[in-house]
Amino acid sequence: MTTPEPSTEPSTEPSARDVDVLVTGAGITGLYQLYRAREAGFSVQLLEAGDGVGGTWYWNRYPGARFDSESYTYGYIFSKELFEEWEWQEHFAEQPEIEQYLNHVVDRFDLRRHIRFGARVSSAVYDEGSGTWSVAASDGTRFRARYFVAATGVLSVPYYPEVPGREDFRGESYHTGLWPAEPVDFAGKRVAVIGTGSSGVQVIPTIADEVASLTVYQRTANWCTPLNNAPITPDEQAELRANFEAMCEILDTSPSGFLHLAHDRAAFDDSREERWSFFEKMWGSPGFSKLTSNYSDLLMDEAANAEWCEFVSEKIRGIIEDPETAEKLIPSDHRFGEKRPPFVTGYFEAFNNPHVELVDLRQTPILRMTEDGIETSEGVREFDIVVWATGFDFGTGALARMGIRGRDGVALVDHWADGPRTFLGVQTAGFPNFFFPGGPHAAAGNNPRYNGDQVDFITDTLVYLRSNGFETIEVTSSAEDTWTDMIDRWATRAPSFGESSYYFGSNIPGKPRKYLLNSAGRPKLFAEIARVAETDYQAFTLSRSSDRRSAEV
Ligand code: N01
């Protein structure tokens, strides 16, 4: 990747507008940061590359895109009124409803006037003299911000694998993470889906009935289990409203940010019969509870994990009529939870349709794209539409492409050449007044809850700085080292999330193999945030403009 040079400012360009807090990214995290900073009395501006709000939930509008965290646990909980007036239709909402919700939030809290759409940040350079960030966007606007907050998400740079001839294909071609706003007409078309991660397995059953033929190109089978979605009944709506405070209490303190309660038994505390009956209950339970409410040793004990995998394999064999296809769809190279498990609706069932076919790329790898379709070692198949469900440059992708330069002109991509270095997943040394909630080393569970914790911490920090007359804040190298070493250490300690997971950046050729989430979990984040307050921000260097001037003399 090339490192963008700091921008030079031609005299014809408009002069920069001053703002206290410049946020980039109108996703769930960025909107919350915008709201919190404005409510705290800062002047604010948000730059968004897209033409609407939603971030990940704006770009990923492919058929079947939906939450796999419960809607009411993923949405905002900072306002009881908002919670009460928005009735989610389903326990796991689909993308159009999510986008409507976020637009509602923006209008309800009068945030739209602070948002500039179609403005992709192209460079962000720290000016040591003034302690501010000069930020330029693709629409020609320029800002000078005291604080620069990049809420650009972990899944915002779609990844296309290097398949020879990819540009040669003359049919329609879409990436799930860059789905067009206009509906794609699948009716009667010959369609290929490449990739069977969480996105691919949502697209496949959603379009299966519409298409003339569907060919699924799978490299690695995933441990898919049922999402168990359902409409939210009026009684459940009433219950959600009545229990708002109790729900917030759980969400604000839960290690994973979910409502699901942990199970208090280990797998071999039960007989095989009891275990299978419990697994049956898990199979019928909603979304991530199969991970968070399963046997307490599921992720730590290989034998316990193998039992659950055996149960799931039996289920897959029971659903799929063709035994050969069933075996291909059962993972053989990783345990449950070692990669991010997708939650599905009708995925396995789709393969019982005669016009839906699975191509196992381990047996017949893709050689190239042709003008008409896809060539594997078995020959060419022709398609009208190819869907690339091939994932993202996870964690650091967007931050690496924004031309961010800190003190002494050091580029963020150089500082992070061996992987991200952060403190709390919110700051990095050498980049004063720069924050990146919801980025690398952030969540490891229900994202909005973790990312919200970070936004709250950042906002409280900005208020602290203002109250104490400070203008700049920069994490110390030693605090950054301690946090980053801890993340790396914990990442290898946990037997789950193997290095084959994109959580280590392993899906992107040449990317350093470094853990990109918060491997220590939310309790560690809470503990460290509390310690920052108790120690009066010892992990940071705080300064006033007079300090900077005297340092320059
Ligand atoms: O991406 P992925 P995703 N040839 O990286 C395959 C979130 N999400 O967009 O496993 C052939 O998981 C690759 O194969 P392999 C969620 O956090 C949430 O699906 O590398 N195939 C894999 O099958 C999720 O984890 C929801 O062998 C190639 C697929 O492409 C994250 O987004 C819904 C290939 C990529 O899977 C990313 O999910 C959707 C190649 N050269 C997404 N290169 C919710 O439900 C890659 N692949 C909330």
Fold blueprint:
Elements: E1 17-24, H1 28-39, E2 44-47, H2 56-59, H3 71-74, H4 80-85, H5 95-108, E3 115-116, E4 121-127, E5 132-137, E6 142-150, E7 172-175, E8 190-194, H6 198-207, E9 213-218, E10 225-226, H7 234-242, H8 244-253, H9 272-283, H10 289-292, H11 302-319, H12 323-329, E11 343-344, H13 347-350, E12 356-360, E13 366-369, E14 373-376, E15 379-382, E16 385-388, E17 404-405, H14 412-415, E18 434-435, H15 447-467, E19 472-475, H16 477-493, H17 522-534, E20 540-543, H18 545-552
Parallel strand pairs: 1-2, 1-6, 2-3, 4-17, 6-18, 7-16, 8-9, 8-16, 9-12, 10-11
Antiparallel strand pairs: 4-5, 5-6, 13-14, 14-15, 19-20
Bound molecules: 3-acetylpyridine adenine dinucleotide (N01).
Keywords, separated by commas or semicolons:
single chain, 553 residues, alpha/beta, FAD/NAD(P)-binding domain, 8-stranded mixed sheet, 5-stranded parallel sheet, 18 helices, 20 strands, 32% helix, globular, binds 3-acetylpyridine adenine dinucleotide
| Uncertain residue segments | 1-13
- List bound small molecules: 3-acetylpyridine adenine dinucleotide
In CATH terms, the superfamily of the domain at 17-51 and 117-157 and 394-552 is FAD/NAD(P)-binding domain
Shape: globular
- Give me the Rg, rounded: 24 Å
**What percent strand?**
15-25%
Q: What is the CATH domain class of the domain at 17-51 and 117-157 and 394-552? A: Alpha Beta
Distance between the first and last residues' Cα: 37 Å
- Give the total of beta strands: 20
Secondary structure class reads alpha/beta
At the third CATH level, what is the topology name of the domain at 17-51 and 117-157 and 394-552?
Answer: FAD/NAD(P)-binding domain
